[in-house]
Amino acid sequence: MTTVTHLLGVDTDDGAAALSRGLAAALRAVPDLGVDGLRLPVDDLVDVVRELLSVPVGNLAVRAWQGERAVVAARRRTLEHPGERVVVELFHHTVTSTQEPTVDLSVEGLGRRPVLRLTLEVTLDVDALLVTVSGGRVERLSPGRASATAELSVSGATLLRRHVDVVGLRPDPPPPGVDRGPAARVPGQEVRS
Questions:
Q1: Selection from 142, 150, 144 nearest residue 124 by Cα
Q2: What does the buried/exposed string (b/e) look like for 139-162 if buried means 16 or more CB atoms within 10 Å of the residue's CB?
Q3: How many whole angstroms separate alpha carbon 87 and alpha carbon 182?
Q4: How much is the pTM?
Q5: For residue 137, is it left (φ>0), alpha (ψ between -120 and 50) or beta?
Q6: Where are the domains positioned within the chain?
Q7: Which residues on adjacent β-strands are paired with residue 99?
Q8: Can you tell which superkingdom this protein's organism belongs to (predicted)?
Q9: How far apart are CA 175 and CA 107, in angstroms?
Q10: Torsion of CA 153, 156, 162, 164, to 10 degrees
């Protein structure tokens, strides 16, 4: 499973140093970062941002795939017919997920205030994907080969941008007790099972 931290390369010392340089430059260039003149040390911000980016890339992709027309129809159908499972096959396609995480600081007397607003954009180029839907939810992904590009920015200034040719989108294991029996599949279509 590939995390955004790995995708951006900030899971290495060199990547963390690049993030630190980018954050330091952003703090100098953007005067409204911080809370009433208080600023977090850059090393603390690097640790917080790395933690924010520890999300699996597949989790971001699920949010994007839930909006695909065939997946939306499958979600609707499985809500209307409890117990049914639908498999949607998506051929070569690209999905983009944009997130805007915020680093907040709690200051006595001032409360909790945003210190840093980030924009994370992850674009996945996927050769093929099977999406299994049940109960109105995406419950399983069976991806083929995928590559990804990720960009992390602050106030429109790019901190990091990286492309990775092979990305693991391995689905989470099924919850205990969930029967995933066989589901029929027709290429390019949604199918009930």
A1: 150
A2: bbbebeebebbbbbbbeeeebbeb
A3: 10
A4: 0.71
A5: beta
A6: 4-174+183-192
A7: 120
A8: Bacteria
A9: 40
A10: 90
